[in-house]
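Late entry, written up from scratch paper. The run itself happened at the end of the previous shift, but nothing got recorded in the book at the time, so transcribing now.
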Amino acid sequence: MPRAIWTGSITFGLVTVPVGLFSATEDHTVHFHQYQRGTTDRIRYQRVNERTGDEVPFSDIVRGHDEGDGQTIIVEPSELDQIAPGRSHSIDVSAFVDLDEIDPIHYQKTYWLAPTKQENEKVYALLAAAMESTNRAAIATFVMRGKQYLCAVRAASGVLSLETLYYGDEIRNPHDSLDHLPESADTSGREFDMARTLIESMSVPWQPEDYQDTYTDRVRQLIEDKRAGNEVVPESAPPEATDVTDLLEALRRSVEARKAS
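Output as recorded:
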């Protein structure tokens, strides 16, 4: 069994369920080191004083906040520890909300929750079943590694998962930060009807196992080709943006291609 990265309890009302927190995902990305071109010399990063050029030991490094007017406020690690919320041992549920009301933009990272002892399994299973039957997610806060997280605990197939969430003030308003956003689309023209038809023709049930990281596969193939001394074949260039005058024709041909397949 994997090792829990955090242990504590889910607390709601007067009910407490001891649980462990486990990573729900794993990274399959091909990772590279950095080298100087023409050599196999690794590139290393050092903590260097920009004025003297001398390397600085980690024990001598403090935090600083740039005030923007030439002044820097220095903060010691011990001062941060004094005001930190501490290592929490509780996922404190403050409310239950309809799971469908949470916009996916708030989701940050997923973890599994599991009971830490056999005697806790009945309460855990009861909580999971009740949440799943009501389609509710528990909104809670907990502290891990010196940081407080907002989270949603949800249930599926008898298993509880914890999703760390972005706070509301961390979500950017696209209309305030993005250029070239249209006001609205014309929903009365043939282009709109054809776009709907194309979307419906491409609609399938969600099956995550149908999708794979093809780019990582190509990176692995690149490494194999270079190891074997084979020629590297580049991918084709991305398509040009659709001209608005060709939109209807592009939609029509896309629908016909879907029907043919």
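The beta strands are 6-12, 15-23, 63-66, 72-75, 90-98, 107-115, 136-144, 147-156, 159-165.
(Scratch paper discarded after transcription.)
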